[in-house]
Design goal:
membrane, elongated, 83% helix, 7 helices, mainly alpha
């Protein structure tokens, strides 16, 4: 138990960061996303809220790294096998497109707006960034997380409702990737909310049910 305490508290820190990121997305950042607005509206929002927009995306970058750290903690509680390595590698691979997308959102799109480089370029970068993070990055995260959780179930690291909760959280994350892939912003918003709530709560459940057991 005492060996697990540092990671126990680290998971709580990760959850706090992710919660802050989600609150930012549904609050100060919301006007910059393609939800009930136009491209011109989003460009105007970013122009008026550039600093908040960039700082908020920096929190999301920390969240991406935090998710990898959590999955590394999960993997550390499993036997060292090829499947464990593949699962963690998939999560790690998801970081690259996710961070690239967040850099595009945080720094490139504001420069396009400030430089008056046009709606077409802004829209192109927006679509690229959305698919990098929402489809590719998120898909790799959730495939890797699902695999690690399946291994945890097989090894009896998690069981019962704890196992079911984790598997459902990763499944909803995969549905988010599918929603982005088919271009449904409405479904993507629903699955983003559902998967983020369940996954962050599952991190806490894992910390209390596994690390403090």
């Amino acid at each position: 138990m005492f060996k697990q305490l540092p990671t126990f508290y680290l998971i709580h820190i990760i959850v706090v960061i992710i919660c802050i990121a989600c609150l930012l997305m549904n609050g100060p950042m919301r006007g910059g996303f393609p939800i009930d607005n136009t491209v011109a509206d989003r460009m105007a929002f970013i122009a008026d809220n550039g600093l908040v927009w960039t700082l908020s995306w920096s929190v999301w970058m920390l969240s991406a790294l935090g998710l990898f750290v959590f999955c590394a903690i999960l993997a550390d509680n499993l036997r060292l096998t090829l499947w464990r390595t593949i699962g963690l590698a998939l999560v790690g691979m998801g970081i690259a497109p996710d961070l690239i997308a967040e850099v595009l959102y945080a720094f490139v799109m504001p420069k396009i707006v400030a430089g008056h480089l046009g709606v077409e370029l802004f829209s192109l970068i927006e679509v690229i960034a959305m698919h990098l993070t929402g489809f590719l990055g998120n898909g790799l995260y959730n495939l890797g997380g699902m695999l690690l959780t399946c291994l945890a179930v097989r090894e009896n690291v998690v069981k019962g409702w704890v196992a079911a909760w984790g598997l459902l959280a990763w499944f909803l994350g995969l549905m988010l990737s599918l929603s982005v892939g088919i271009g449904s912003i409405a479904l993507a918003e629903i699955f983003t909310a559902a998967s983020m709530v369940l996954s962050t709560l599952w991190m806490l459940i894992f910390a209390h049910k596994v690390l403090k057991a």
